[in-house]
C-alpha cells in the first residue's frame, strides 16, 4: 500500500533529484497503481521490526524529501489520489498544486491513534483546509476518516472523478499546466507559496519583486508577441535569479 519505508523514501528522493536536473519536464503527476491505496503513511512494520525510529535529521528540510516541493522543485505538480491517503501520505496532498481524487479515495491522519505526534502534515494542510478542519482531522485519528466528497467540500482536494477517469484527468491537467511559460510558472509558484509565510504587505512586496525580475526573461515578451501573432509561444528555459 505504498507505505513510506526507508527504501521508498530513498527512491522518491532520487526521482525528485533526477527531475530537478531535467529541465525538459514541464509538469509532474504523482499517483499510485490500482485503486486500493495511494499511500498508507509511514511503514510501521519496518519501525516495529527494527525496534526504533532510526536517526532523523534535526531540520525538517533535510529529514523529509518526499515531494517535489520539499526538494526545491517549482514545477507544477498534480496529485491524483486513488484509494487511501493516510498520515504521512498527506504530505503529497499538502505540497500539491492541484489535487484530484477518485470517488473511492479517502483520507485519514492516523498519527495519534498509533501514539505519534501529528505536526508536519497538519501544519502544511492548515493553509489548504483551515484550522478547524485540520484540528478535526488530526485529533480524531482513525475515527476522522474523510471520503472524497467530504474532502472536496473542505478543499482538501480540488476535483473528484470516477476511478476510470482519474489518470486521464491528471494528464489533462498536467498537459494544460505544461503549456505556460515554465519560468513564469515557477516564479508565480514561488510568490504564491511564499506568501503564506509572510504578512500580507510583505508578501505583496515579495510578489512584486518576483514579477519585476521576470520581466527580464525572454518569455515575458515572447508571450505577448505569440498572442498578437496568433501562434504557439516558443518558451525559453533561462532561469532568472529569484
What is the structure about, briefly put?
This protein is α/β, with parallel strands linked by helices.
Structure description:
There is one protein chain. By secondary structure, this protein is of the alpha/beta class. It has helices at 6-21, 44-50, 60-63, 90-95, 120-129, 131-140, 148-153, 166-177, 182-195, 200-214, 219-229, and strands at 28-30, 37-39, 77-81, 84-86, 98-102, 106-108, 146-147, 159-161. The protein has 2 domains: 6-177, 2-enoyl-CoA Hydratase, Chain A, domain 1; 182-229. The strands form 2 sheets. It has a 4-stranded parallel sheet. The protein has a 4-stranded mixed sheet with strand order 2-4-6-7.
Q: Portion of residues in helices?
A: 40-55%
- Indicate the proportion of strand residues: 5-15%
- The CATH superfamily of the largest domain turns out to be 2-enoyl-CoA Hydratase, Chain A, domain 1
Summarize the helix and strand pattern as letters: HEEHHEEHEEHHEHEHHHH
Q: Which regions have little confidence, pLDDT < 50, spanning 5+ residues? A: none
Secondary structure tally: strands: 8
> Mean pLDDT, rounded to whole units?
91
Write the CATH architecture name of the largest domain: Alpha-Beta Complex
Termini distance? 38 Å
The total of helices stands at: 11
Using the alpha-carbon principal axes, give the shape. globular
The largest β sheet comes out as:
4 strands, parallel
Integer count of domains: 2
Sheet with most strands: strand arrangement: 1-3-5-8
Which structural class matches the secondary elements? alpha/beta
The CATH class of the largest domain is: Alpha Beta
Amino acid at each position: 500500500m505504498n507505505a513510506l519505508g526507508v527504501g521508498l523514501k530513498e527512491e522518491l528522493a532520487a526521482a525528485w533529484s533526477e527531475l530537478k536536473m531535467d529541465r525538459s519536464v514541464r509538469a509532474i503527476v504523482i499517483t499510485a497503481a490500482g485503486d486500493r491505496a495511494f499511500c498508507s503513511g509511514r511503514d510501521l512494520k519496518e519501525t516495529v521490526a527494527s525496534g526504533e525510529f532510526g536517526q532523523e535529521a534535526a531540520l525538517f528540510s533535510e529529514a523529509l524529501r518526499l515531494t517535489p516541493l520539499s526538494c526545491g522543485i517549482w514545477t507544477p505538480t498534480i496529485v491524483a489520489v486513488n484509494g487511501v491517503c493516510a498520515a504521512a501520505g498527506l504530505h503529497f496532498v499538502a505540497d500539491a498544486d492541484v489535487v484530484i481524487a477518485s470517488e473511492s479515495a479517502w483520507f485519514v491522519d492516523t498519527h495519534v491513534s498509533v501514539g505519534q505526534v501529528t505536526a508536519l502534515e497538519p501544519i502544511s494542510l492548515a493553509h489548504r483546509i483551515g484550522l478547524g478542519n485540520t484540528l478535526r482531522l488530526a485529533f480524531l485519528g482513525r475515527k476522522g476518516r474523510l471520503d472524497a466528497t467530504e474532502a472536496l467540500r473542505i478543499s482538501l482536494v480540488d476535483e473528484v472523478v470516477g476511478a476510470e477517469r482519474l489518470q486521464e484527468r491528471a494528464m489533462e491537467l498536467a498537459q494544460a499546466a505544461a503549456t505556460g511559460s515554465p519560468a513564469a510558472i515557477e516564479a508565480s509558484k514561488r510568490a504564491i507559496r511564499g506568501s503564506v509565510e509572510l504578512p500580507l504587505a510583505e508578501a505583496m512586496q515579495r510578489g512584486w519583486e518576483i514579477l519585476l525580475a521576470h520581466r527580464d526573461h525572454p518569455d515575458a515578451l515572447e508571450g505577448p508577441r505569440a498572442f498578437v501573432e496568433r501562434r504557439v509561444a516558443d518558451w525559453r528555459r533561462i532561469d532568472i535569479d529569484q
